[in-house]
């Protein structure tokens, strides 16, 4: 059994590394095909070979995952897995992230099965690891969003001053991509590259708005689009929006200070029961045995877990004040 599990882990690791490396190779082939199309040369002459069976299996699996991800993204505009990866700043497609999660789940399942002797324990541990990976993605999204909002005030001041100095809006975005720190310069640099490749500025800005997912930045995008259509002094508009955004940030900080105790209370109430259960199990295992080995004990754990989640969500909803 251990040999079979080791072979399965090795195969899954190889498959994951192969598909991730294949992404870079496919991007290189796409660039080469564009060069051949525009330059009229054949970069791959004499190097054409048929894909292997493993390559065909890997490409078929990736295409299937991409179809599932894109279908879900069409149903939920702006919340698809590809968009989540972009919002988190993770250089993976949604299908690749799903594949890595599946491989990670399989590896942890087998390792947990070997270490604990129970397949069910391996499933539970694998699901927990996958949930931790998804929570990490959500953490990256929030961290990146907070960093962007924190830089927004300085960015708007730079935009207004550059416009008054005679810069065009495109030149101003190029200046931001050079002078500011990530993620602000990364996002504006992407807009500049898209517009240089022929994408309309309105479409590029709306894509950036979807990636950033900030109501404050949506005000800026709307103002820029309207100004390009009807005219006006964009520098004064940006200054007005900047004052509004700074005031909203100040109010958010005040509300965060006032609700800190409530949020801490919710976290303590959510963490106290499992921590107390672990401590009691370490001090007196026989005292916790009825809860862990009997049907009524399992029911009590399930009911308590559901009530804990409901209570935590209620407290979080009360503390979530929108501005």
Automatic annotation (TrEMBL):
Top-level taxon: Bacteria
Keyword flag Transmembrane helix: yes
Subcellular location: Cell membrane
Protein name: Tight adherence protein B
Positions of the Type II secretion system protein GspF domain: 157-281
Coiled-coil annotated residue ranges, if any: 234-261
Keyword annotations of the record: Cell membrane, Coiled coil, Membrane, Transmembrane, Transmembrane helix
TM helices/strands, residue ranges: 97-116, 122-141, 262-283, 295-315
Membrane topology of the entry: Multi-pass membrane protein
Species: Allisonella histaminiformans
GO CC aspect terms: plasma membrane
Cross-referenced PANTHER family: INTEGRAL MEMBRANE PROTEIN-RELATED, PILUS ASSEMBLY PROTEIN
């Amino acid at each position: 059994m251990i040999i079979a599990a080791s072979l399965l882990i090795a195969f899954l690791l190889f498959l994951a590394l192969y598909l991730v490396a294949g992404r870079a190779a496919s991007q290189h082939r796409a660039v080469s095909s564009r060069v051949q199309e525009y330059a009229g040369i054949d970069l791959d002459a004499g190097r054409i070979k048929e894909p292997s069976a493993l390559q065909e299996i890997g490409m078929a699996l990736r295409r299937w995952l991409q179809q599932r991800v894109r279908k879900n993204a069409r149903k939920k505009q702006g919340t698809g897995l590809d968009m989540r990866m972009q919002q988190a700043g993770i250089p993976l497609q949604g299908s690749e992230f799903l594949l890595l999660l599946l491989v990670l789940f399989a590896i942890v399942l087998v390792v947990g099965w070997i270490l604990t002797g129970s397949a069910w324990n391996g499933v539970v541990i694998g699901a927990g690891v996958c949930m931790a990976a998804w929570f990490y993605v959500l953490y990256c999204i929030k961290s990146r969003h907070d960093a962007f909002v924190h830089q927004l005030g300085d960015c708007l001041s730079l935009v207004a001053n550059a416009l008054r100095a005679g810069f065009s809006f495109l030149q101003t975005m190029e200046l931001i991509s050079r002078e500011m720190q990530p993620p602000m310069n990364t996002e504006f640099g992407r807009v500049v590259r898209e517009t240089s490749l022929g994408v309309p500025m309105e479409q590029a800005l709306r894509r950036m708005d979807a990636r950033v997912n900030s109501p404050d930045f949506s005000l800026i995008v709307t103002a820029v689009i309207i100004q390009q259509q009807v005219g006006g002094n964009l520098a004064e508009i940006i200054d007005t929006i900047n004052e509004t955004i700074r005031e909203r940030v100040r109010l958010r900080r005040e509300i965060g200070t006032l609700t800190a105790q409530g949020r801490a209370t919710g976290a303590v109430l959510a963490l106290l029961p499992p921590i107390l259960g672990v401590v009691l199990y370490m001090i007196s295992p026989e005292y916790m045995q009825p809860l862990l080995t009997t049907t009524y004990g399992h029911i009590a754990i399930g009911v308590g877990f559901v009530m804990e989640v409901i209570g935590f969500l209620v407290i979080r909803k009360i503390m979530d004040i929108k501005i």
